[in-house]
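User: For a benchmark we're assembling, each entry needs the component sequences followed by a predicted structure for the full assembly. Here are entry 17's components. Please fill in the structure.
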Amino acid sequence: MAGLRVEIEAMADPLLQAQGLVKRFGALTASDRLSLGVEVGELHALIGPNGAGKTTAIAQLAGELNPDQGAIRFAGQDVTNLPIERRCRLGLTRSYQITSLFRGFTALENVALAVQARAGHSFRFWRPAGRDRRLIEPAEALLDRLGLGGRAGIRAADLAHGEQRQLEIAMALATGPRLLLLDEPMAGMGPEESRAMVALLSRLKGEVSILLVEHDMDAVFALADRVTVLVYGRAIATGTPAAIRADPNVRAAYLGEEGA
Amino acid sequence: MLDSAAGSRRLGRPTRAGLVTLAGLVLLALLPPAMLALDQPFYISLGTRVVIYAIAAVSLDLILGYGGLVSFGHGAFVGAGAYVVGILFVHAQDGSPVLSWPVAIAGSEAALVAWPAAVVVSALLALAIGAICLRTRGVAFIMITLAFAQMLFFLFVSLPRYGGEDGISLWWRNTLPGVDLGDDVWFYYLCLALLVGFTLLCRRLVGSRFGRVLRAAKENERRLRALGVAPYPYQLTAFVIAGAGAGLAGALLANQTGFVSPSPLHWTSSGEIMVMVILGGLGTLVGPILGAAALLVLEETLSTYTSHWGLVLGPILILVVLTAKRGLYGWLAGRDRGDG
Amino acid sequence: MPTLLVLEQILNGLQLGFTLFLMAAGLTLVFGIMGLINLAHGSLYMIGAFVAASVTGATGSFLLGLLAAVPAAALVGVAIEMIALRRLYDRDHLDQVLATFGLILFLNELASILWGARPLFMDVPSWLAGTVEILPGVPYPAYRLAMILVGALVAVLLYLLIAHTRLGMLIRAGATNRAMVGALGINVARLYTLVFALGAGLAALAGVMAGPILSVQVGMGEQILILTFVVVVIGGLGSIKGALVGALLVGLVDTLGRVFLPVLLRIVLPPANADSVGASLASMAIYILMAVVLAWRPNGLFGRAHA
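Assistant: Structure for entry 17:
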């Protein structure tokens, strides 16, 4: 099913292609000649034990960290030296593992800001943004879609943890991404909330390409078209969930540990 | 916060914050007739100073309260505005040009020339200083804004043509067709009108898309970038608008005191404007006005008892910081703050 | 002759530079370890100078003045740290700025009550009153030379302290990772007080040494404070090495600029104009230096990114 589609699209250029990324922090090599491709329409999961360099990888792909070596192409363009805000405007948007919201803004304002960011420059000094239908309507639609419709007027800081995670995704979606970099969207969620997030991600699949960093293996194997396994900053395997499950290297380096 | 406040305002329900604002406005409007009736014209000039410093404080709050940019050099723009008025006056008196190259600029006593010039010069200065300072963050930003203001202080001290340390005496106020600026009551009401106008302008600004980006950069700059917005141009624009407002305050201050000296450029003046904002209520527009009134009246009162008013004001300031963060406006208006 | 003038001015620049280093070292240590921006750091310099001027005036001994001033300022430092400043370590910078601004108002007023509004003057101690021939036929005031040597000596001692002692190890650890120091089982509050006292003592030393060449008066602390800010912004916040390099740069640029900018401008401008433009430019030189450094390296020469 999903596997077939991926094989067909693999013929075209990948949407995101990282080639030979190296990132060192002193003696620690957080990314070690890391190469990674995400196809159009794919949900690609990036897994690995703690300290494998997943967050560093996301930060480089998103543009918050510059790799010491290597190149990143997105949608046919070299973005290696573009700052995060420029990559976002090209359609490469990230979310954060530790919820990163505008805590003093309401849920609606948070999403409306993201809508506004997509709508071009914000050198508009006169009309009240809080009454601007062009911002509010898309923002409300996104909140509804993520099940936050009734919480629009609540300050982000006062939302429950799971709701904050959903808001985080809503904001990322509001920027109109072609590829979402999701850094552990289920971190700190209870089982109920996790299930809702998995359902949401499976609805998003196909509509937008996703690179998903996640610890919850059940979620990863349920959602992903392909999985890349990262150990000590290196990609030791990439393949379908079934292939990854069967890979002896992966079992030795990672899954065995997980099972213990 | 802002949106919900705007919503309740539309419903026409008078809020406590709205009442505080209205009461303050009525008090300011009635001050001259009341003081003339009580034969205390001195308080009109104190009131004028309050109103002028309030303009400076509101302008600082735009970047400090809404933008989260702790600028410790706001006095530079007040001082620059004052010096523009002073320098134009000096050259109008002796008939020499301010500049003969690259463009010829003559002196002037006209308010319609000098005041806009003060606003423009301060704005340009803010553009230059802000462009450099906004490359830094946090403590470095505080220090470097302070240092630039101090640089201007020493620059003007080193200019004997404009009085050096002693400054420039304005023998009379600027002229404005149809209005006698020399009359203290007229001048007061003009300043008040400018304060109200500037505050309303700032209210539009902070509620606009621009203002939302500015507040977002304060809340979470990293996230704003991740949404595709680089904060620098917005912060710089806010810095320039704030500089322009301070320049206007400086032009008015020169007229009010009849005197232009390096002292508004001195870093303690920048500190005082900042204290006004905090004392009144950071991130509100009415707060800084209250703060300006409170600080100047407090100074005036303390200085009638002791010449060492810093001995009292210093500890008050420390206590306010350690205990009462919401400021006078937060305290008066309660949780129901009208202007975000 | 001009080369001798240049040499003399370079020494003057070093002397200003080392004075600034004594100030900047304390300011940058306190920021690096406690995350505190302390505007009242200049007040400690002023207190040092005032105490030294009083004691020296009363006893006739500069050394007694120095020995009284440094511990006195360190004690004042400890007192304000324990009463007010330690409540500010976890606050944002705005709170710190305002509270320490209040502290300046208070301390300045207190100083003007205790010592009066008029400046005090300190004499150069008799045993340093003469000049020293630094090169054959080139005399230089012994006192200023001593200031350079003391400054250099303190820089070396500070380096040894930080690089080779247990306290230094904690200071380095604290500057990199504050939580870690707590995790080591150290009494963090005491460490902070100690660091603050060290910074206060260094500021007082700077104040005492500057006493005989400046007038001792209320407001002297703020003048040097701003220069110190320029130094730490150029050097990079939290970096002692940056403080040293920044201080010497600022000292040299300021001193040489004041002497040589008018001279240089006379080449292209009429003398009267050259002098006034030169004086204005010289008073701005270090700020221009700061702007250039920041345009090139926003975190200063040796700074790391601080939030």
